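Example 9 (inverse folding). The structure is encoded as follows.
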């Protein structure tokens, strides 16, 4: 009897937590990605449902190296533009997060961070649904290996 009394409330609580739509939506709209000292992201694809008006991407640098040597940022652009954006940012320096200034091709971006640091960016998903988007790092030499697809997915 004692065991049953313990289990029933726990099961009821779990069911409520899973049933809460706002909780699920909040989680789906917040994404985390890691970068490391080996010049790698830990994901090559990211997606959010179109029901997210805004999405927050948090970038965690899990390495030890300084931003000046192994900096990472998280930048989003159309897949047709990302390589040109990365090349344009290369000469802009760490102070400018290796990004071309006022470049309309940049949909969203974080600052450059070094080992042990994290940063995040929040942006609107308006007009991004069904677009072919790529996220990447613009630190010089990184974009070729540090990139992946970003999708705002339509719901049924
Ligand atoms: Co990088």
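The amino acid assigned to each position is listed next.
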């Amino acid at each position: 009897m004692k065991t049953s009394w313990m289990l029933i409330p726990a099961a009821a609580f779990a069911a409520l937590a899973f049933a809460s739509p706002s909780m699920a939506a909040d989680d789906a709209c917040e994404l985390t990605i890691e970068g490391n000292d080996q010049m790698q992201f830990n994901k090559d694809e990211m997606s959010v449902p179109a029901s997210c008006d805004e999405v927050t991407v948090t970038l965690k640098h899990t390495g030890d190296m300084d931003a000046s040597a192994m900096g990472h940022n998280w930048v989003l652009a159309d897949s047709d533009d990302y390589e040109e954006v990365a090349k344009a940012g290369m000469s802009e320096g760490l102070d400018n997060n290796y990004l071309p200034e006022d470049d309309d091709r940049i949909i969203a971006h974080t600052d450059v961070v070094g080992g042990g640091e994290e940063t995040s960016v929040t942006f609107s998903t308006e007009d991004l649904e069904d677009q072919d988007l790529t996220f990447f790092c613009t630190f010089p030499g990184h974009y070729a290996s540090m990139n992946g697809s970003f999708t705002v997915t339509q719901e049924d």
